[in-house]
Amino acid sequence: MKRIGVYWFTHDLRVNDNQLLHKAAQELDELICLYCVAKITPFLQRFSQRHKLGSARQQFINQAVHDLLQSLRRYDQTLLVMDRDPVTVLRYLIEHHQVTHLYCDQFSGYDEQQVCKQITREFPTLVLSQLANNTLFEQGQLPFSVTELPNTFTQFRKLVETLPIVLPCSRPSFLPPPVNVQLPSVHLPLVAPEQTLYPGGEAAGIVHCQHYFATTSASHYKETRNALDDELASTKFSPWLALGCVSPKTIVAMLRHYEAQQGQNESTYWIVFELLWREYFYWYARKYQSALFQFAGIHHKRPLTSFYASRFLQWVKGHTPYPIVNACMNQLNETGYMSNRGRQLVASCLIHELGLDWRYGAAYFETQLLDYDVASNWGNWQYLAGVGADPRGSRQFNLDKQTELYDPERRFIKRWHGEDNVTDIYDVDMADWPILPKDK
Q1: CA distances from 309 to 50, 130, 366, 396, 426 (A)
Q2: Kind of pairing, strands 4-9 and 30-36?
Q3: Buried b vs exposed e over 114-136: b needs ≥16 C-beta within 10 Å?
Q4: Is 313 exposed, middle or buried (0-12, 13-18, 19+ CB in 10 A)?
């Protein structure tokens, strides 16, 4: 009997350092490579107030999928790109093409986990192979079970930072031949890479990492990482990490090579430190699953917030009373990028100054960010809202002080027009009744 498998690509859009693709190559006679176009779920539509992904994020995804298709063609393979939900597509392939094996990431995302559970329920003889394809450590390396994940990042870091990080594996030497699937593959529209801030795909991701480590920026990373808008102040690895175009192990391997030539210091360590944060949120999402999206978070502690539609719209459009927040949101809406410092400031503003449910901010970020990662995004929003992994509770930033610290000459604010649409938030009450100006 032929062993026919489906590799369901999601956030592992690469052929290098892909152990799961190696496994499929060794075990199968024929292979179907599948990608399902991301959809706006009813939950995401409700909280983001958006019907589609932002143009910058969608373009980055399209480029990454196209790059994967080009890589697979070098193996005489192809990529089936489907604009249908994964359950429907996988069910069809299993029923009509005698699929015996399914290969996919060990997801941090709850929705993808539910797809695997439903498919294996419907097809109990299907062989499901999953690996954590975008982590520094395999589950067996961890000195604790997923359910016993430490409650704070610091506890986690102390337990794992001395663990060995396995070197990335090479690309497969071959792939099994494709199956002739009679389904119309979607053509994703593209624009020229030079017209985008960061071009998507494995090839572009590797070039970006090589360019970064060809400079001495890594030796100064800790001092510059909080800059709001500077090409080499932060690593900018996250967009390609989020889609799995580049693996974290590959970045660590490049960093070790850099350190061998330029030397280690606190800044080069801090790059690994940031990757460990990403790692923590991956296992955090695996542990808490659907609680990642719950208003009361993992501690069942409901914040004292509400929802003012006009305030949320002001925040989205960059029309708040806070120029630094407006500038950050304008940058996000135009480019799909926002610095880590900027994300903390706009999140603090939404939660504290505007008094809004943190999930609206997290969902809007999901639709816009080039580097959207379910675990890091929702985990960080929970952290800042005081319903997640931060033992100190909700964090509020003084926006005036932060402006003086990180944009004292207001260059960032001017570049991104943060002062163009400064608007008072007190125009309606929580029932959307107009509030008259104080001078009337």
Answers
A1: 13, 41, 19, 22, 12
A2: parallel
A3: ebbeebeeebeebeeeebbbbbb
A4: exposed
Domains and CATH numbers, the chain: 1-133 (3.40.50.620), 134-168+202-289 (1.25.40.80), 309-415 (1.10.579.10)
What's the rounded Cα separation, in Å, for the pair 90 and 84?
10
Q: Over the stretch 300-355, which tens digit does the pLDDT of each residue have?
A: 888 888 888 999 999 999 999 999 999 999 999 999 999 999 999 999 999 999 99
The confidence band for 439, taking pLDDT boundaries of 50, 70 and 90, is: very low
Own/partner long-range contacts of 259-263 (Cβ < 8 Å, ≥24 apart): 262/216, 262/218, 262/219, 263/219
The first and second tokens of residue 375, run together, are: 């675990």
The pTM (predicted TM-score) of the whole model is 0.94
Would you say 249 and 165 are in contact if contact means Cβ atoms under 8 Å apart? yes
Q: What is the dihedral of CA 294, 300, 306, 310, to 10 degrees?
A: -30
d(CA 291, CA 282): 14
Sign of CA dihedral 379, 141, 31, 175: positive
DSSP at 253: H
pLDDT tens for 278-306 read: 999 999 999 999 999 999 999 888 888 88
Q: Which of 111, 125, 103 is nearest to 20 (CA)?
A: 103
